[in-house]
Amino acid sequence: MLPLPVLEQAAAEMTNYRGSGMSVMEMSHRSQVYIDIFDETKANLKRILKIPDTHEICFMQGGATLQFSAVPMNLIGKTGKADYAVTGNFSELAMKEAQKYGEVNIACSSSDKKHTYIPSQGDIKLSQDASYFYYCANNTIYGTEWKYTPDTGSIPLVSDMSSNMLSVPVDVSKFALIFAGVQKNMAPAGMAVVIIDKSIAGNEHPLTPKLMSYQLMIDSDSMHNTPPCYTIYILGLVLKWLETQGGVEGMEKIKSAKAKIIYDILDDSKVFIGSAEPGSRSDMNVTFRTHSEELDAKFVKEALAAGFDNLKGHRVTGGMRASIYNAMPFEGVQALADFMRKFELENK
Amino acid sequence: MLPLPVLEQAAAEMTNYRGSGMSVMEMSHRSQVYIDIFDETKANLKRILKIPDTHEICFMQGGATLQFSAVPMNLIGKTGKADYAVTGNFSELAMKEAQKYGEVNIACSSSDKKHTYIPSQGDIKLSQDASYFYYCANNTIYGTEWKYTPDTGSIPLVSDMSSNMLSVPVDVSKFALIFAGVQKNMAPAGMAVVIIDKSIAGNEHPLTPKLMSYQLMIDSDSMHNTPPCYTIYILGLVLKWLETQGGVEGMEKIKSAKAKIIYDILDDSKVFIGSAEPGSRSDMNVTFRTHSEELDAKFVKEALAAGFDNLKGHRVTGGMRASIYNAMPFEGVQALADFMRKFELENK
Q1: Which of B99, B161, B288, B290 is the most exposed place for a label (fewest CB within 10 A)?
Q2: Smallest Cα–Cα separation from A25: which of B158, B91, B231?
Q3: CB A289 within 8 A of CB A273
Q4: Alpha-carbon gap: A227 to the closest alpha carbon of chain B (Å)
């Protein structure tokens, strides 16, 4: 979902961006009118996330999935080893991709309980010589979210924040690298935002495709080739909208309040059961089920008829999942809550 | 440039795509409403370019630049060698990238005459055991275009058609692989269309990033991860517009007639000199200069004041360049021609 004011502005500016006579889709990425959009978007993201000068923002194509490869290709060579936390589908895919480029240690995993929880700090077994420690901050399929930033001492911290970026403040200085596919909270699909400590770049594997070199992206200010200009423009509009909501600090309050509406129903319910353990619950993706697959299917079907799309859980988990990203309004969450209460009354 | 009717339709459908209640930017790539857009776009491209069933269309992120890496990573392993035609900046970049992955033979080059011409068939020195022969069909910086399809016998043919795709019919069956960054004639920047003979995929280097594997893209129908959904939607709108112009056959007539207007001026002029040799002239990018850099600068400055953007040549060539992609209307070319005639009268 994208905020309606963002879509309305994009529509209004589609054929003629602010008197330029051009659509943003048509602008040369080297033109001043576009560079102004690009620079403002970067500056706003830097301000909103309080990104320190030690770090650079890169806009890279290929979404989070290409970052699963870019991270080890650029970073694992330092020692040849990396530590991964496996807490769901996407961290497992990232871990498997990293195995192509070096030795991978699974520092912790939640697979013993079907990824229904986030390991605690004490569960993490670090290698002494890992090039980095990797974790996925929010697991969309399982509905779990890291509520703390792992302490990895001198081992650089890398995090996939694709599904909770911009929903919560982050102390960027603790991270060597943060990346996020943009399509959850930021912009249309087709790009990843990469926030990288500049000192960690420059040691990529010699076979790294040029466009995947973090050093090249830093040196070229993400303009080695034509960047996804229009996606960056939409991100800029989303950031301006975000500031009207109080920035990430405001968004954190809103998203916690939205998630609490659904979690309160789960905690009081005799029909619905929350899938994730309470201390590990995601505020972006609420996963739940009923006592039977038949009743799950009935819920999904009736919800769809009532206008609630995409409530079916991922095929690997079954059950249900309510994704309540930044652009989901309070009213939408409240309407879902009302529907769940009504379903409970009718099916208890 | 994008056709105005495409931008107008995109604006009209921005907040609510055909009664779906959603923007295309917000649709899940697995939803039926989006899959219909995706399938229709692929089907239209297949029909317009008469793509045979032996070939698959893939939508890949990273533009042409990531294909410079993907081509050798996927294809050079067969024999460890590849032949490259170097006829400009982008083919040279592609050639240098390929050197990371195997042995590269420069089968022909136009660097002896500053890339002002396209080598003839007789100039091409093929290796006996090349995995493929690679050429860039249109050289945007130098304003040259291959007017023939090289005959490489049993050596698979690979072409970068980023800047003339959809401007001319292509016998796809002759090619093992065609790719095109979409931002010239097809859609906003951030994607490459790859048309691949399915039989050539599946032998990628073991370190190939997962998202760059042609076999995976074929097997997943470009949906291994979330594709750049909105870019594909715009491509779909462009293809529908293209069919109203008579498809690639109609576009070929239009683009030749548009280019001829400018080339006729160059041939008659005592002030302007065409940069490319007549038999190698591009219909997409017309490069020219005057007898002095001062007069070049004067032309660019006065043209800009008259509303003609982007006429300055690339920094490696100097001079001027008029890019007349598919979406440039006849009237725009005619206006430029009038301006050039006026400038000639004032400066001869």
Answers
A1: B99
A2: B231
A3: yes
A4: 6
A70-96 confidence digits (pLDDT tens): 999 999 999 999 999 999 999 999 999
Strands B138-139 and B103-109: unpaired
Cα dist. B271→A203, A328, B22, B275, B332 in Å?
51, 61, 55, 13, 21
Number of H helices, E strands in chain B: 9, 12
What distance in Å separates the CA atoms of residue A168 and residue A187, rounded to the nearest whole number?
Answer: 17
Tokens 């500016």 belong to A13
Q: Is A57 near chain B, with CB under 8 Å?
A: no
Six token digits for residue A125: 């077994």
Reading the block at residue A103, the tokens are: 């030795």
Q: What is the pTM of this model?
A: 0.96
Q: What is the dihedral of CA A237, A239, A240, A242, to 10 degrees?
A: 120
> Residue B25: helix, strand or coil by DSSP?
helix
**Is there a contact between A227 and B189 if contact means CB atoms under 8 Å apart?**
yes
- Cβ pair A105, A128 in contact under 8 A: no
With CA atoms as reference, the chain A residue closest to B96 would be A210
| Residue in the block written with tokens 């995947």 | A212
User: Which tokens is A304 given?
Assistant: 């769809």
Could you tell me if A17 lies within 8 Å of chain B, comparing CB atoms?
no
**pLDDT tens-digit profile of A271-320?**
999 999 999 999 999 999 999 999 999 999 999 999 998 899 999 999 99
- Using left for φ > 0, alpha for ψ between -120 and 50, and beta otherwise, residue A205 falls in beta
What residues of A are in contact with residue B224 (Cβ under 8 Å)?
Answer: 65
The three-state secondary structure class of A141 is coil
The terminus-to-terminus CA distance of chain A in angstroms comes to 32
What is the rounded distance in angstroms from the CA atom of residue A135 to the CA atom of residue A163?
13
Both structure tokens of A313: 């859980």
- Whether the per-residue pLDDT at A47 is higher than 90: the answer is yes
- How many Å apart are CA A30 and CA A32, to the nearest integer? 7
Q: Map residue B61 onto helix, strand or coil.
A: strand
Q: CA of B80: how far to CAs of A35, A69, B83, B100, B154, in Å? A: 41, 23, 11, 11, 16
* Site of tokens 């995601």: A282
Beta-carbon separation of A7 and B28 below 8 A: no
b/e code A191-210 from CB counts within 10 Å (16+ = b) = bbbbbbbeebbeebbeebbb
Residues of chain B with pLDDT under 50: none
Predicted complex: ipTM over 0.90: yes
Q: How far is A287 from chain B (nearest CA, A)?
A: 18
Would you say A248 and A51 are in contact if contact means Cβ atoms under 8 Å apart?
Answer: no
Counting Cα atoms < 13 Å in the Cβ hemisphere of A235 gives 30
